[in-house]
């Protein structure tokens, strides 16, 4: 019995099947918990899935590399998904042309402030250079953030973790901080969440208000573009 | 579905090739997004199948973050060693980013029409 089991185990750990199945199952478990307990921002499905998978791998004694070899089919789709962001961007582009100047200035301010304050705070508290570089692109959606991180010498997988945490922080405290600065305009509230906290911020904005959701989606797409272009340039100015 | 998936991958491939050939500091998929966006502007609308496929992928966008997110396992030592700077940087910069972006946007879109009429005063 046990030699059989050993053979099966060897087969499973060498094929992508187990990693792929585990990823989909854990994500659906995360979604179920999220829906079941009233879509609370703290119960982010991605976070739950990540914790479930990490715990499973640790218990089974499988390292991250082995798991990722299987799960990279899912990971690969981030590329085409990034291209697909052109569709919502185009649809909203028509509606928001009128506030173009306000959007552009807010975008550049918010994008720069998010990246610089992240690096600045980390630097002031003594973080390593690798960590700071991995933090810089954390406000944009992870396919873009990971690409930028790789380019400026950060660790893409660490950046992915920061991206997800950023989204969860914004979803949890966004309403509070927006009330604090007394912004009542739905367009501005949504745009702030999208620029600073990508897809998770956008999902949160959509839950609250449709206009906010549309502007959040726009903010996410535009900040992805701005960060992808500006951060590598800034990096070359300051670090090389 | 198959056609639009081919279109998305072609845009990504064209983006990758452009970025590498011209040594641009931009990830290939982002250039692919710009290409597709430009294509939509020229065409003047989103074809129905593209709308469906893109909508389908983006609805499950957060699933795609999971494999990379599990990378937290590979970084536990670093996260533990630099817990304070990382937590402070994430919390501080995210709240600053949300607040500043929204504030600038609301101030500018409020002042816009006033400036046109030559009236610089804030509305009550």
Structure commentary:
The complex is a heterodimer of chains A (240) and B (124). With 240 residues, chain A is mainly alpha-helical. Chain A has twelve helices and no strands. In chain A, helix 7 runs antiparallel to helix 8 (129-135) and helix 7 packs across helix 11. The longest helix of chain A is centred in the C-terminal third of the chain and has 30 residues, at 210-239. The model of chain A has no long low-confidence stretch (mean pLDDT 87). Chain B folds into two domains: 1-59; 66-124. Chain B has helices at residues 2-21, 28-43, 48-59, 66-69, 76-81, 83-116. Chain B is extended. Chain A: This is LrgB family protein. Chain A: It is a multi-pass membrane protein.
The portion of residues assigned to helices of chain B is over 70%
Strand segment tally of chain B: 0
**What are the segments of chain B in which pLDDT stays under 50 over at least 5 consecutive residues?**
112-124
Helix content of chain A: over 70%
How many domains is the backbone of chain A divided into? Answer: 2
Rg calculated over all Cα atoms of chain A: 20 Å
Mean pLDDT of chain B: 85
Task: Explain the layout of strands and helices.
The complex is a heterodimer of chains A (240) and B (124).
Chain A: H1 2-14, H2 16-36, H3 45-60, H4 64-76, H5 78-84, H6 86-96, H7 100-124, H8 129-135, H9 142-152, H10 156-180, H11 186-208, H12 210-239
Chain B: H1 2-21, H2 28-43, H3 48-59, H4 66-69, H5 76-81, H6 83-116
Helix pairs in contact in B: 1-2
Could you provide a short overview of the structure?
The complex is a heterodimer of chains A (240) and B (124). With 240 residues, chain A is mainly α.
């Amino acid at each position: 019995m046990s030699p059989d089991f050993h053979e099966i185990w060897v087969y499973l750990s060498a094929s992508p099947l187990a990693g792929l199945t585990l990823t989909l199952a854990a994500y659906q478990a995360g979604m179920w918990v999220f829906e079941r307990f009233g879509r609370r921002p703290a119960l982010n499905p991605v976070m739950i899935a990540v914790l479930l998978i990490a715990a499973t791998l640790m218990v089974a004694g499988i390292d991250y590399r082995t798991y990722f070899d299987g799960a990279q089919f899912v990971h690969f789709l981030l590329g085409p998904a990034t291209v697909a962001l052109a569709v919502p961007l185009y649809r909203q582009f028509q509606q928001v042309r009128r506030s173009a100047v306000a959007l552009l200035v807010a975008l550049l301010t918010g994008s720069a402030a998010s990246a610089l304050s992240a690096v600045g705070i980390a630097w002031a508290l003594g973080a390593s250079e690798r960590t700071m570089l991995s933090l810089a692109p954390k406000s944009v959606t992870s396919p873009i953030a990971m690409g930028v991180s790789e380019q400026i010498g950060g660790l893409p997988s660490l950046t992915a973790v920061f991206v997800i945490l950023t989204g969860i922080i914004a979803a949890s405290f966004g309403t509070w901080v927006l009330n604090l600065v007394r912004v009542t305009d739905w367009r501005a509230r949504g745009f702030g969440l999208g620029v600073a906290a990508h897809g998770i911020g956008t999902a949160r904005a959509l839950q609250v208000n449709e206009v906010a959701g549309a502007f959040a989606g726009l903010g996410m797409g535009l900040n992805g573009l701005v960060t992808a272009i500006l951060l590598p340039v800034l990096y070359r100015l300051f670090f090389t | 579905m198959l056609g639009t998936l081919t279109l998305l991958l072609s845009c990504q491939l064209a983006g990758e090739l452009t970025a590498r050939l011209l040594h641009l500091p931009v990830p290939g998929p982002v250039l692919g997004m710009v290409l597709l966006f430009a294509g939509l502007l020229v065409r003047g609308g989103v074809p129905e199948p593209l709308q469906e496929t893109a909508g389908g992928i983006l609805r499950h966008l957060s699933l795609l973050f999971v494999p990379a997110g599990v990378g937290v396992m590979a970084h536990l030592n670093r996260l533990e060693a630099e817990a304070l700077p990382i937590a402070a940087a994430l919390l501080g910069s995210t709240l600053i980013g949300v607040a500043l972006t929204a504030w600038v946007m609301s101030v500018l879109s409020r002042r816009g029409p006033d400036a046109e009429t030559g009236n610089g005063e804030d509305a009550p």
